[in-house]
Specification:
alpha/beta, 49% helix
């Protein structure tokens, strides 16, 4: 089988020199054991980096026929960078492609043969590479999707562990079909990637889309490792944005929660009205407007949150109707 390992990169000039040799060694070892064909390769996707990431990818490409590079014009986000990589790997055709300098024939059978499967993995290699052969074996056993699933979160901080587990439970309660403790380390067969091309949405959340597709799947357990080098590029705002993308892409239950909040606000208002009437009848009226101010702030806050949430949904619809490209490719080193 021909395998493509897709590695999205954003400002990874520190991690790539350490990660690339390990990925190449893993690919060579699988080739030697007959798990993958000699035409298998690694595709590094530069997601609009502002450092030397693309020049490092170009150097790796020049030194090895097993390394390919895809350069996006600007930062499109991790999810879109993954899409760009897997779609390019399946088609292996791009108008701006440049063949490897060591390849005398750009139209050789190597470039024409489609990949059978792709594996996506982050450049920091916190996902252990020994899981890749396991994923390939699961694919050979007939599974179209193989998820890399963390068996524990001991390496995370208490805050990250609590927030991540709470988010997975929230997704489940909102009706999202996701894989617990799974990020973006997965294997997908060629037919899954081709089917994924029909999902033309901009509000992208692959962790929800792929399980929803329903193809035969399996799991490989893993224990996350420390980063090779550099710092995580996934800040708290980015994680929150991804979390909202995941919820808003697959569920309208937050809208029903707004209705529930409205009903609670009305119930509170009725209770306050009864309290005021009873106080007037008994002559036990407390001077001041504490209850009134409390009501104003409570209802006003609920209205602001509700309008903001509805606005976010409308904004997502607005972006979807534009049908703008999700990414732009500058260079493809084949």
């Amino acid at each position: 089988m021909k395998l493509a390992i897709i590695v999205p990169c954003y400002n990874e000039e520190e991690a790539l020199p350490l990660s690339a040799p390990r990925l190449l060694d893993t690919l060579e070892e699988m080739t030697a054991h007959g798990l993958v064909s000699p035409q298998s390769y690694i595709l590094f996707v530069n997601d609009g980096s502002t450092d030397r990431t693309w020049s490092i990818i170009s150097s790796l490409h020049a030194s090895s026929t097993r390394v390919k590079g895809l350069n996006l014009v600007s930062n499109a986000g991790q999810q879109n960078a993954i899409l760009a990589g897997i779609f390019t790997a399946v088609t292996e055709m791009h108008p701006g492609s440049r063949p490897h300098p060591a390849s005398p024939d750009p139209a050789s059978i190597d470039n024409q043969q489609p990949v059978d499967a792709v594996i996506t993995i982050d450049a920091d290699l916190q996902d252990p590479l020994d899981c890749i052969p396991k994923m390939v074996r699961e694919f050979r056993n007939g599974y179209d999707v193989v998820y890399g699933v963390r068996n524990s979160r001991k390496s995370d901080s208490a805050f990250k562990r609590l927030s991540a587990e709470s988010f997975y439970k929230l997704q489940s309660s909102l009706g999202l079909k996701t894989v617990f403790n799974h990020a973006d380390f997965r294997l997908m067969s060629r037919r899954v990637v081709l089917e994924l091309r029909n999902y033309d949405e901009r509000n992208l959340y692959l962790r929800g889309i792929i399980p929803m597709m329903g193809y035969p799947h399996s799991y490989v357990e893993l224990e996350r490792q420390p980063r090779n080098a550099g710092n995580s590029k996934y800040s708290i705002p980015k994680m929150l944005a991804l979390a909202f993308d995941g919820i808003s892409s697959f569920s309208i239950r937050p809208m029903y929660l707004i209705l529930a909040l409205g009903a609670i606000a009305i119930a509170i208002a009725i209770a306050i009205a009864i309290y005021v009437v009873v106080s007037l009848c008994s002559g036990n009226v407390v001077p001041g407007w504490t209850s009134l101010m409390l009501s104003i702030w409570l209802v006003g806050g609920m209205m602001m949150v509700s309008i903001g949430l509805v606005g976010l949904y409308v904004g997502k619809v607005y972006l979807e109707t534009k049908h703008r490209p999700r990414y732009h490719i500058s260079d493809f080193l084949s």
